[in-house]
């Protein structure tokens, strides 16, 4: 299996240094190292079981949308958007709901992993198809529990949910798939379109005789059906050469309302040129990050000083 790792802040060996770990915790949340560790365990298992023909892309951010998918698996069996959780405890996946145990029942969890995983799959499919291609199969959302201490009661879940003991049958099914739904050429093309997105191909312009007013009025509704994404693509072709880093795609209001997904207002705010003062960085970190590191260092010095005092007193 081919692995393409897009995780930020990792060194050449794929590990996190002390400074990178602190920087990642401040930037992505304090559970970020645990999430990476859970991903690594699942990826290692996939790598041992899946042979040639499969490609796994880790922590890929889709253009400038800000949507990051922990694992994208492409191969003969299809395309899978995989979300890996390091949670422990007892949860319930019921339809589109993600509930946590409360007493003898369940209550809605603060973060709905079912909806997030489902929208990851839809975002990935939109990201590929808005480049002018049609996927032969839908992207399948998968939620994997990497910790044996997580138990999930699945009742008609909107996404495929598997606990630690369900990973081996899932991977075995991928390795022994009968008739492939994606050819090797298709897998390679979709991998390239995820890593290096392209614009739609220009449609040839045909000359037409001047139409009457009535014919123009009949064609007007069809012209109004042009999508917002296509208009963005056409405008970018006219203004400047295409840069993959500038790729973005529009999502519906319903898709953007998911937890962990940027809202439409946030995308618009990000698109507007707002003049903001640049933060001064030292060693690639902001003053807040340096302050946190300094506080941790001071706490470590106090602990070492207390330890030396105890040793000196005993002697």
Description:
This protein is an alpha/beta fold and 315 residues long. Helix content is 41%, strand content 18%. It is built from ten helices and ten strands. The strands form two sheets. It has a six-stranded mixed sheet, sandwiched between helices. It has a four-stranded mixed sheet with strand order 7-6-5-9. It starts with a strand and ends with a helix. About 21% of the residues have low confidence.
Compact description:
This protein has 315 residues and is α/β, with parallel strands linked by helices. The protein is 41% helix and 18% strand. The strands form two sheets. The chain has a six-stranded mixed beta sheet, with helices on both faces. The protein has a four-stranded mixed beta sheet with strand order 7-6-5-9.
- DSSP strand (E) fraction? 15-25%
Give the tally of β-strands. 10
Strand order of the largest sheet: 1-2-3-4-8-10
Q: What does the oligomeric state look like here?
A: single chain
What is the helix tally?
Answer: 10
Mass-distribution shape? globular
Class derived from helix and strand content = alpha/beta
Rg for CA atoms: 24 Å
Elements, N to C (H/E) = EHHEEEEEEHEEEHHHHHHH
Catalogue the unreliable spans. 209-247, 250-277
Helices and strands, with pairings:
Layout: E1 2-5, H1 18-28, H2 32-49, E2 55-61, E3 68-75, E4 78-85, E5 89-94, E6 97-102, E7 105-108, H3 113-129, E8 140-145, E9 150-155, E10 160-162, H4 167-175, H5 184-195, H6 213-223, H7 228-239, H8 253-256, H9 264-271, H10 287-314
Parallel strand pairs: 1-2, 4-8, 5-9, 8-10
Antiparallel strand pairs: 2-3, 3-4, 5-6, 6-7
């Amino acid at each position: 299996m081919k692995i393409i790792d897009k995780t930020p802040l990792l060194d050449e060996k794929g590990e996190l240094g002390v400074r990178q770990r602190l920087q990642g915790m401040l930037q992505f949340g304090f559970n970020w190292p645990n999430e990476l560790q859970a991903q690594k365990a699942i990826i290692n298992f996939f790598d041992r079981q899946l042979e040639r023909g499969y490609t796994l892309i880790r922590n890929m951010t889709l253009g400038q949308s800000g949507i990051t998918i922990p694992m994208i698996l492409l191969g003969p069996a299809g395309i899978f958007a995989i979300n890996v959780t390091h949670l422990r405890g007892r949860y319930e996946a019921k339809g589109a709901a993600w509930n946590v145990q409360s007493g003898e029942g369940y209550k809605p969890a603060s973060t709905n992993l079912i909806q997030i995983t489902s929208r990851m799959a839809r975002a990935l499919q939109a990201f590929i198809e808005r480049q002018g291609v049609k996927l032969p199969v839908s992207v399948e959302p998968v939620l994997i529990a990497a910790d044996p201490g997580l138990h999930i009661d699945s009742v008609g879940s909107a996404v495929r949910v598997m606990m630690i003991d369900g990973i081996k049958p899932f991977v075995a099914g991928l390795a022994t798939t009968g008739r492939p739904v994606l050819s090797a050429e298709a897998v390679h093309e979709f991998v390239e379109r995820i890593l290096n997105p392209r614009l739609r191909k220009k449609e040839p312009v045909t000359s037409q005789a001047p139409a009457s007013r009535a014919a123009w009025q009949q064609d007007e509704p069809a012209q109004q059906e042009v999508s917002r994404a296509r208009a963005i693509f056409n405008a970018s072709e006219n203004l400047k050469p295409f840069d993959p880093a500038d790729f973005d795609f529009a999502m519906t209001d319903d898709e953007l309302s998911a937890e962990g997904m940027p809202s439409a207002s946030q995308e618009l705010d990000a698109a507007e040129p707002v003049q903001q003062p640049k933060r001064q960085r030292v060693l690639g970190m902001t003053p807040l990050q340096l302050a946190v590191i300094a506080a941790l260092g001071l706490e470590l010095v106090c602990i070492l000083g207390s330890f030396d005092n105890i040793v000196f007193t005993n002697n």
